[in-house]
Amino acid sequence: MYGLSDSLKPLSAAEEQVLLAVWSCKPPASRRDIGERLAEKGWKPATVLNFLYRLEAKGWVKSGKDQNRNIYTPTITKRAYSVWIMRERLDAVFGGDVAAAVRALVSESGCSQSQLEQAIAVLEEKHAEAEEYDLYDPYG
């Protein structure tokens, strides 16, 4: 799964929301800390706990104890998950065609000029890195 363990089970949309809340806390996160972030969206403490159990069973978090509190630590970084989920959607929706995905995103998402300029800068930086690598001769 693009750098993620194959032992991780797919997430539901609700499980993803809980995992996002875990990442938003300083690790290790207590159930209370996670619940506070989700309470704003109407989540009840028992529901949060149920979903934390699910995330642990699926391999996305590890639980532990800190005195009398349950604590949770994500097993992967938010960035790793973000790359994996974007790649998965790119393959599923656009057949892996990055140009088509960018074209659709730019034309339909209402990106501001500033956002487009930032994206162009990132693409130019990656392009320059690729050129440097292509010019590198380890035997020269």
UniProtKB/TrEMBL annotation:
Q: Which GO terms describe its molecular function?
A: DNA binding
Pfam families hit by this protein: Penicillinase_R (PF03965)
* Species lineage: Bacteria, Bacillati, Bacillota, Clostridia, Eubacteriales
Q: Does the keyword DNA-binding apply?
A: yes
What protein name applies here?
CopY family transcriptional regulator
User: What GO terms describe the biological role, i.e. biological process, of this protein?
Assistant: negative regulation of DNA-templated transcription
For this UniProt record, the keywords arranged alphabetically read as follows: DNA-binding, Transcription, Transcription regulation
Q: Which InterPro entries match?
A: BlaI_family, WH-like_DNA-bd_sf, WH_DNA-bd_sf
Give the family per the record. Belongs to the BlaI transcriptional regulatory family.
Spell out where the chain crosses the membrane.
none
